[in-house]
Write a structure and sequence with these properties.
4 helices; alpha/beta; about 20% strand; single chain
Length: about 130
């Protein structure tokens, strides 16, 4: 689990599930810049384990589409149920005019191609106000 200096405080924790280390780092930076604490996972199974071991219930999650659609869809459903309705975004490589729209009514799309400050703003919008 990625516990930074804010982990013990009230900062919201955000699960990031992506097989690409570079993309996880990019999203982790956006989470940190948005005032959150990233919890990184490379696979759906690792995400399930990290969520279960987390001392602080995650406030949101970002799941890459790069996993098979079934894995992504199943993980998004699991996280939404486990995290009591916390927002779960689907991370995609494609820029979209519909970036704030929900896919299959389940997850808003978070384009990885967003510029740094725009990506941070989108991540910040996922994190519920505390």
């Amino acid at each position: 689990m990625e516990d930074g200096p804010k982990a013990g405080g009230d900062a919201p924790h955000v699960v990031i599930v992506d097989p690409s280390p570079a993309r996880r780092r990019r999203i982790s930076t956006a989470v940190t810049n948005a005032g959150g604490v990233p919890i990184e996972a490379a696979t759906p199974l690792e995400a399930v384990v990290r969520v279960g071991a987390s001392r602080v219930p995650p406030a949101a999650a970002v799941v890459a589409e790069q996993a098979t659609q079934t894995d992504s869809a199943e993980l998004i459903g699991y996280l939404r149920d486990t995290l009591a309705g916390a927002p779960v975004a689907r991370l995609t490589d494609e820029a979209s005019d519909d970036a704030d729209a929900e896919v299959d009514g389940a997850a808003p799309v978070l384009p990885i191609e967003d510029a740094g400050s725009e990506l941070t703003a989108r991540v910040r919008s996922l994190i519920p106000e505390t």
